[in-house]
Amino acid sequence: MVPKILSHDEAVEALRSFLRERSSYDVFPVSFRLIVLDTTLKVKKALEVMLLYNVVSAPLWNTAEAKFAGMFTVQDVIHLIQYYYHTSSWEGAAADVEQIRLFRIREVEKTLSVPPPPLLSVHPLRPLYDACRFLIRTHARRLPLIDKDTQTNGEVVISVLTQYRVLKFIATNCRDITQYLTSTLQDLGIGTYVSPEHDSNSENQFYPIATATMQTAVFDVVHMFSERGISAVPIVDDNGKVLDLYETVDVITLVRNGAYQALDLTIAQALKQRTADFPGVVTCSPKSSLSAVFSLIRMRRVHRLVVVAGPEDSQPGRLVGIISLSDIMRSLMGNDVPLGGSGIGAVPIDREL
Ligand code: ADP
Question: What GO cellular component entries does it have (predicted)?
Fold first, then answer.
């Protein structure tokens, strides 16, 4: 039973208790669709399927071994683009990317020396709390839920748990608790912020935030995604005012259109190709409460928030910081408890595609 008025910390504790009493199954509707891709599928076909069903990632299935084989995600596509941009002509790159089969992607990532994505999964009946801690601890953006078929003893991919789904679930079902998350983002230190000590005349006046302008080439932004392991870059004007946000999913739209040359476009040109369902840039102020952020998550399709200076600032709209879903999740779960022990049901699946 939740008391009438909670402090911020008590509300966080109440949310953790809520997550301990639920399993990953609770996050999903009774009926849902799951797109699983065979590892022998060509990347071109995989992208077509993802476009058709409007998904940005999918579990992979190794049919020969009848086993789950990791995930195909936007980050994989970013890495493929980087690889071919450096190693081939435009025409060759387009042809190669279309022909490459999914099981070869890990080889490309090895060549690029990017860390391989964690091949992990969790049983869908484990407490949701454990699954969330696992997401935080492994820096995974998504966690495949794998069950066992009792008759064949084989693996069954049930679905994929994402930070977005968990936070939406909390925002929708725990309004009576999230309203007490009254501390501000600034006080909680949630997100990544422009360093006040940094020299504003230096090359990146927004350090440590990676930014771009409307004139930056898409490929340079793709490089930032890959190198920094981030999934969005604020687009700013000369005064540091936030104009837009370029996200990894935007690159997928370009590539899906078959226009690999489009990576030479400027951000301004690329943004014109954005689909009409772009939910818009969601902003907040450093003085916003975490409770207000949960209201936004409940009402809108939020994958990250851009922190901008408020109207009281001499430069309202100026970029101040960026908050990802993992930042929010970390503030709820804490990141101090070690993995392992009896509570975690995650099974490392350490095998090649
Ligand atoms: P998520 O992990 O939720 O998918 P990101 O990959 O975008 O989100 O963010 C990972 C981490 O990097 C977060 O701590 C976030 O604050 C930070 N971050 C996000 N975007 C940027 C950026 N453009 N520049 C610097 N840091 C960023």
Answer: cytoplasm; nucleotide-activated protein kinase complex; nucleus
